[in-house]
Amino acid sequence: MRVFSFFNRASRVLHDYPSCSKLLVLFTLSGGSLVAYSESQSDIGTHSVEHNQKEPRKKRVVLLGTGWAGISFLKDIDYSMYDVQVVSPRNYFAFTPLLPSVTCGTVEARSIVEPIRNFIKKRGGEIRFWEAECVKIDAANRKVFCRSNIDNNLVGSGEFPLEYDYLVIATGGQVNTFNTPGVMEHCHFLKEVEDAQKIRDSVIDCFEKAVLPSLSEEERKTNLHFVIVGGGPTGVEFAAELHDFVQEDLVKLYPMTQDIVKITVIQSGDHILNTFDERISSFAEQKFQRDGIEVQTGCRVVSVSDKEITMKVKSKGEICSVPYGMVVWSTGIGTRPVLRDFMDQIGQTKRRVLTTDEWLRVKGCENVYALGDCATIDQRKIMEDISTIFKAADKDNSGTLTVKEFQDVIDDILIRYPQLDLYLKSKHLRDVKDLLKDSQGNERKEVDIEGFKLALSHADSQMKSLPATAQVAAQQGTYLSKCFSRMEKCKNNPEGPLRFRGSGRHQFLPFRYKHFGQFAPLGGEQAAAELPGDWVSTGHSTQWLWYSVYASKQVSWRTRVLVISDWTRRFIFGRDSSRI
Amino acid sequence: MRVFSFFNRASRVLHDYPSCSKLLVLFTLSGGSLVAYSESQSDIGTHSVEHNQKEPRKKRVVLLGTGWAGISFLKDIDYSMYDVQVVSPRNYFAFTPLLPSVTCGTVEARSIVEPIRNFIKKRGGEIRFWEAECVKIDAANRKVFCRSNIDNNLVGSGEFPLEYDYLVIATGGQVNTFNTPGVMEHCHFLKEVEDAQKIRDSVIDCFEKAVLPSLSEEERKTNLHFVIVGGGPTGVEFAAELHDFVQEDLVKLYPMTQDIVKITVIQSGDHILNTFDERISSFAEQKFQRDGIEVQTGCRVVSVSDKEITMKVKSKGEICSVPYGMVVWSTGIGTRPVLRDFMDQIGQTKRRVLTTDEWLRVKGCENVYALGDCATIDQRKIMEDISTIFKAADKDNSGTLTVKEFQDVIDDILIRYPQLDLYLKSKHLRDVKDLLKDSQGNERKEVDIEGFKLALSHADSQMKSLPATAQVAAQQGTYLSKCFSRMEKCKNNPEGPLRFRGSGRHQFLPFRYKHFGQFAPLGGEQAAAELPGDWVSTGHSTQWLWYSVYASKQVSWRTRVLVISDWTRRFIFGRDSSRI
């Protein structure tokens, strides 16, 4: 009995005070061992901040969305300075890079999600999270209107307004069908956890239906034809996962399907993974060829019916249709209706996506920020500002810029216009002074406005919009929460670059993205990775690098332990084929 | 690189040949350790049996259903003797006693399911499983008609007939609403894995909706009123699980709900757990009272609307309605339409449920067996057969039975009519000869038919129909598969009791249920158990007994490891409140 009550008490203690324990969880597996220490957090600030009417009112921040951008913002925001309210139709954060693994049960859906309320509580905030969808933003009155997305028969109105001092929009993108007929009705997507779960069920449905005794061979083949539209990282990873699932697990349980399963990836460009390095792209194509995954490049899908997918082969202009069992549409990001409406309000009608400046502030609107997939940064061009830069740099108003004058402003220019930095790197120029050399390569003592324009004229060609990745969103969230923490401090002591078109300095440094590389798991325990510094790595070792990076990037120890034990489980028992 | 390729190879080997390895999985947790060896199976018979037209055709067995009865049958059937086809709308077996744990995330749904195809493959059978529903049984032509329950747009007809030599019906029961209006529309159930998953989502919905800023205090209370109809083991366990989930996890994340969550159990009888020993019943009631779970006994639900549940208090005859957030209906078992129709065909129209004899053979129909929740055994009464028994026993046709003659047949009587055994036990009679004593307790040398009738007249009062539990179903499945294995052998050498109403002996011993006890987990790491031999155990130690019994009863090593790691996960991190 003693031992039982010890366990009981230990359970309660561990569970009630996770912060006071350094907990050892040991998985010993076939000689390899993996030791994971649970988060050891100090108790400081874990108690909820109570509203005190006598204190000056804290500024109200409303955050829309709980994806990568939102969660990074919540992770670092100072809850003692702001009254934070979070609105999202999902009460959890999902580790989206593992969604393709969820589709085939390599990792369970629950293992990649973490409740938002856990986050806020752990970070010492009062829990003010509302599971609801923002249906309207009223920027003029600093209000958002929300509606609960729970559709069962619970009592009470699910509609409520929220007032804000600062609004942070991080609602992410939605599926973009490019208005292709039939896509919404007949395709699967891979943006939400539910999507991944539906795909998993659907794959098993295809197999169970295909083996029924009443089907012809042709019908079996059709039902086991899996089509992936979009050869980007998500589509490619799903194709690889599906191939592994089929070969390692399903054909053993559905022996008659051995030779009739077919996986096709349709890509409109000339290569799959075309945002990656060329070496990765061709490694992936070769791997897929060996695996028997068909890659159809240069094809654009024109419509999807309930039985067939129709596409146009670009080179020949031909239209062809193929029957399928399941289609996963994994291409493009669209703008949500609530943001479309908001963009109309603030004069961004012609924009494709919500546009911010380099400080993530929504253009044409005060105190509203947007980050992650729902927004894009409109980087200012140097050439647009070239005259004002020149004027600001030319302190003595001589009409020419000396090397000294140029050097005085170059740091601010480099911060304000990051494309210049990229340009210097692309030209292998170590010293910015080299920009001022004449066409023969001779140093000049000073340049006039025309010479200055000429020197910087090609820099803008280096401008690139940021990819819609978790990495970008997470960095933006962290950046913004840091700005919020120093809002007061930086009002008096601005830390940003010189305002060329105004006076003084910008309050903050603009957001700058740092690329840490990108993975593409290709199945069969192989992966490709683009690492910083133009490094490319492929093969089995890269897959192990992928495992460690993805394990370390988990947002909580709970999900970390679960993801690792899911991998271990798959390794020992294979993937589950139960249709639940 | 070496170490990576070692792991890769090891992974493949382990995965492809699970049977050749004795695999050590070690979870070391805070000093307590648990060692689990993976199933070590011999390779004999793991290869699929190929159809060979030259061999005499194997008898075709069609099994409907993959619950406890079905799976136990599949586990032990000799695949070399029978051509087995399995039809079930679910391609997995679910460990249903853990369903209440799934409703609150103590255990994950995937951890309690095992694909049927895995079973068949592991047991050395050719995989002939069809994910479909049986829609019609045509006993006259020995055929069943099946229809695929996959409702997406895959090609091919999902309808097919199957011919059988033996049909085994193990489709389980369905929800029984007792025709109470509104139950189907507004209540949750707890029979399938999907039901448990829906309940889990719904609980979170209730909490998320209740805390929205737009609700009144009254509305919050309504949404957080959880009603359980039925005070049987399932209902009580769910109430306990829910209480734990709320107190251990949810109130910390939804602090404002602390004092307004209410759980009510409605029971039509006078006590909850009324099939258990009285001591357990009152232990449970006391525990619930301490926990603040309201138990309303003597109440019958008369209707359920979208907002309110209406019941009749039996003692007062009053009707009252209470608003609710969620109702779980956990009472009674009904008959599926396909069996209703089958019963009409075979003349069991007036029966409440499909009826079999003591050998699990469906009455009024050849070569059809029924087991588990979908059937009931119609135990023959002694008094109905008393004259034929007397005649068979009275070998010398003297009109009286000597003690010797009686002793010659008593074993057969005891086997054929198990109620007699129970009667002897209830009367504390050690020797059956005591039955023949006269009313003064004097031994008699012989009895006539009237005396014989008198001696056995009260035995039938001990007849009880078997409860609809996993334990009964599993024992029936095992029993039937053993009969099937010895079908040929026992045709020539019958091993059953004497046929009193015919000649010779019965082919097999009739099915006899052995009760191994029953658990009722009551939350807060406490459980109650009824153990064999009239033992009752309650409290924390019983919960640990429960853990070990349920871990050991898992149908595969995969589910065993998963269930144990789920328990461990809950112990360390609590339950997940993500709404997925």
Briefly characterize the structure.
The structure is a homodimer of 580-residue chains. Chain A starts with a helix and ends in a 7-residue tail after the last helix. A 5-stranded parallel β-sheet of chain A has the order 7-4-3-11-22, with no helix packed on it.
What tags apply to this protein structure?
homodimer, 580 residues, alpha/beta, 5-stranded parallel beta sheet, 4-stranded parallel beta sheet, 22% strand, globular, disordered N terminus, calcium ion binding (chains A, B)
Structure description:
2 copies of one chain form a homodimer. The two termini of chain A are 39 Å apart. Chain A is globular, with a radius of gyration of 27 Å. In chain A, helix 2 (68-76) runs parallel beside helix 15 (470-485) and helix 6 runs antiparallel to helix 7. By secondary structure, the first copy, chain A, is an alpha/beta fold. In chain A, strand 17 (308-313) and strand 18 form a beta hairpin. The first copy, chain A, has a 5-stranded parallel sheet, with no helix packed on it. Chain A has a 4-stranded parallel sheet with strand order 15-14-13-19. The interface between A and B is large, with 99 and 99 residues. Chains A, B: Keywords: Calcium, FAD, Flavoprotein, Membrane, Metal-binding, Mitochondrion, Mitochondrion inner membrane, NAD, NADP, Oxidoreductase, Peroxisome, Transit peptide.
Biggest interchain interface, per-side counts? A-B, 99 and 99 residues
Q: Mind summarizing the main beta sheet of chain A?
A: 5 strands, parallel
Question: Using only CA atoms, what is the Rg of chain A?
Answer: 27 Å
N-C termini distance of chain A: 39 Å
SS class of chain A: alpha/beta
- Count, helices of chain A: 18
Write out the strand line-up for the largest beta sheet of chain A, numbering strands in chain order: 7-4-3-11-22
Mean pLDDT of chain A comes to: 87
- Tell me the β content of chain A: 15-25%
Low-confidence stretches of chain A: 1-7, 16-53
Q: Write down how many β-strands of chain A occur, each being a DSSP E stretch of 2 or more residues.
A: 28
Shape by Cα distribution of chain A: globular
**What level of helicity do the residues of chain A show?**
25-40%
What is the chains' assembly state?
homodimer
InterPro entries (chains A, B): EF-hand-dom_pair (IPR011992), EF_Hand_1_Ca_BS (IPR018247), EF_hand_dom (IPR002048), FAD/NAD-bd_sf (IPR036188), FAD/NAD-binding_dom (IPR023753), NDH-2 (IPR045024), NDH2-like_C (IPR054585)
Membrane topology (chains A, B): Peripheral membrane protein
EC number (chains A, B): 1.6.5.9
Catalytic activity (chains A, B): a ubiquinone + NADH + H(+) = a ubiquinol + NAD(+); a quinone + NADH + H(+) = a quinol + NAD(+)
